[in-house]
Every structure is written in C-alpha cells, then in structure tokens.
Design brief:
Elements (H helix, E strand, L loop, with lengths): L11 H13 L4 H13 L2 H6 L2 E3 L8 E5 L4 E5 L5 E2 L4 E2 L5 E5 L6 E5 L8 H5 L4 E4 L6 E3 L3 E3 L4 E6 L5 E5 L6 H12 L9 E8 L5 E7 L11 E7 L7 H15 L3 H9 E6 L4 H6 L24 H13 L3 E8 L6 E3 L9 H17 L22 H9 L2 E8 L15 H18 L6
Parallel strand pairs: 3-7, 15-16, 15-17, 17-19
Antiparallel strand pairs: 1-6, 2-3, 4-5, 6-12, 7-11, 8-9, 8-12, 10-11, 13-14, 14-16, 18-19
The structure holds zinc ion.
GO molecular function: metallocarboxypeptidase activity; zinc ion binding
Cofactor: Zn(2+)
Organism: Chlamydomonas eustigma
Amino acid sequence: MKSGMKPHGVGYKQITLMILKKISKGFTLHKGITIQTRAKTNTGMEQQTTLSVQSNFDSGNIEVVSIGEEGDIHLKIRPDPWCETDQANHMQWFHYRVRGVRGKSLKMSIINAGHASYPTEGWDGYHACASYDLEHWFRIKTTTYDHHTGVLSIQHNPESDSVHYAYFAPYTQERHAAFVHKLQTAHMASGHGVRLRSLGRTLEGRDIDLITVGGDAMPTEVEKHVIWIIGRQHPGETQAEYFIEGLLERLVLKPDAVARKLLSGAIFHVVPNMCPDGSYRGHLRTNAAGVNLNRAWAGPDPSTCPEVYHTLNRMKETGVDFLLDVHGDEGLPHCFVAGLSGIPRWNSRIEGLQSEFCDAFMRACPEFQTTYGYPRDAPGKANLNLCSKQIGQAFDCLSLTLEMPFKDCAELPEPLQEWSPERSKALGAGVLHAILETLPKLRY
Ligand SMILES: [Zn+2]
C-alpha cells in the first residue's frame, strides 16, 4: 500500500463530508445514508471510495509518491532504461488509472516532469489525455507546467468512478492483435491477399508483426512497386500505430478506388509496431534493452536490437521503392515530414520526388504542411543511423519520416480532443492518395 492511503474503510468524518456534499449537490438524504451503510458493512466499499492509482497493465507507467484524501496526488514518471546512443534515460510517456474518483476534485502533480526528455517544448501548451471508456480520449485543459518547479499539474473533477490518464491515447497489444488478425481474414474485393507474418522476435519474445498486402514482392512480381510503412520505433508515439490502422483499414478492410488502384501497382509491407516490448513496458523511446531503434539502422546488433535487424534483412530481400517511418513529435504542433537532405545520394531526382509527394499529401490532407518542421541537414551531414536516411541511401529511393503532434494541430485546431487517434487514422487513410500520385515516378 502506498503512503497516504487509508488502511481500513472510509472514515466517519469522510462519510459525513460525502453526505453533506451529496445533499448540497441536490441528492436526497436517502442516497447519502446508503453510502454510510455500505461503508460500514464490508471492505468492498473501501475499494470503491478510496483513491487508488494503478499502472500495472499494458503500456502503464507511473510511480505513486503520495495520495492525499482530498485528491492531492503526487506522481513520478518511471524512466526508460539507459540509452547509450542518446546518453539519456528517456521519459515523457505516462499512463495510469485512478479509481474511487467520482465527485472528487483531483489535483495530480507529476513532480519529475522537469526531467522529461522534452521538458519545455513538450509540456508547454500540452494538455493531458483522459478517458472513461478507453475508446474516446479527451483533453484535460487545466493541465499546466511550472518551469520553476518542473511540476506538471493535472486538475480534474471526474464524472465516473474510474479514469485513465495518459500522455496520448494508448494503443494496446490486445488492440494490435485484434486488428492484425482481422486483416488476415479480410476477403478483398480486389482479390489481393493479406499475409500476417513475424519478422522475428523481440528480446522479450514478442513477435514483430509484418502485414503484407498485394503480393509477396518476390522475383515474379518485380514489376510492382514495393512500399514499406513502419511505425512506433519510438513506442510512446502511439499516434503512429493509429495512423497505420487508418491506412490499413482503407487499403484492406474498405478498399476504395484509390486502394484498389494502388494495389494493382504496389505491394505494401507494413510493420504497425516496431517496438512491442517498449510499448508494453510504457517506454517513451527505447526497447527492453534501452536501444533507441531509430539510431540503430547503420548496423543493427541482433543481440540488443533484433527489431531493426530483422526488419532491415527483410527489406534487403524485398527491395524498397518508398518508405514511410511514422512518428510523433513531443514539441511541434504540426504534421510534417523529415526528408533525405544530407544523405550522400541526395540529388535532384530525390528532391523532386519529395516535393511532389508533399504537394500531393497537402492536397489530400489539409492538416499536413511543409512550413514547419525540422531543419534540413547540410550536404553530407545526415545521420545514417536514422531509418529513413539509411533506407534512402541504401536503396536510392524516396524515404521519409512522418511526424504528428502530441498537442493540437495548429493549422486546424480541434479543442476537445486536440490531436487524437481519430485524426491520426484519417491522416493514415489520406496518405494513400499521396502515395498513389507519386507511385509512377518512384523508379528511374
Ligand atoms: Zn519518434
């Protein structure tokens, strides 16, 4: 039991306060008495009315420092393992459940937020996500960050008994498993099959799922373009897997004209979650060994980074004509891509392809833009440990990193949810139009 929690039942003083509170809110005295009677009868009521915080589930991450009776809760984010390439214990992702909250005024303080990977750019203007049903996620607008104390405060008066709070809407293994199995059973109008295979196993024994749509890209089908889409190299960037869910839904489950035309000329290899271990553990940026997957592509070590090792080997077998590596950016409130500038092979053909793709993406999705993003790499200065740079260099193809916000999208704000699973999915469905427009020019 955590410090500050009551060891036995609800105190008489607290129940009296609850009765008075209910009466003042217009509830009948009868309801108040019911609460008092239940509280005296068994310890079950303790679990219903005593505040408790849990994170011992898929993608959970929080440590409880203290829980006050009045709803004053102090918390800490648990850091990722040490990451050698980044020289950091990353942290920013949190996900926890608070029970016994109905009618209470919660003030949750994440007291080590100042030590997060992106303290200023990440927390400024950020609003925590919350959900009662684990489907619809809304924002807590009273979230504030104090630069002096390094504390992130989330104030909320919940409407139900139990609430989940998270850095962004979680994407669980159960959701992943249900979705990929639904895909493999889909009968496609176009007649193209769907294969669900494992690229290999993670350090903790989880499969790295690969979905292949439209063929196997083996020598008999070389006339088709080979498209690779991967997401969640950084496990805390869950919007990436929602993006891929939206893309695959349009491609496989509801194939419209765009999807069917694409599949007549392309094979899709899709890895919805590159880092299932980090996802389950509630990490921000690393796998179980503390490896930042997106800093390992120049020479992945299978003993510490099987996720990249197996994926890269499969890419060498299939070839790559286009790659999209999907991410979320903690600071920037925009959707944008990071391109191939700075790779040794950078040339006018790649530059032209990149701008054609971006123009088509903007036509298809008004939330995507090219004004804001990362600075371009100087000639020859690209970091070839990054996936998109390494693949662009190795395969001489268009290869991009896509970033979505954790906050709202400044171009088209939506105050209730801000950036959300729904909008990530819509962007994933929309990108197919941009790929279709670019497809005929991907090869020389
Ligand atoms: Zn990322």
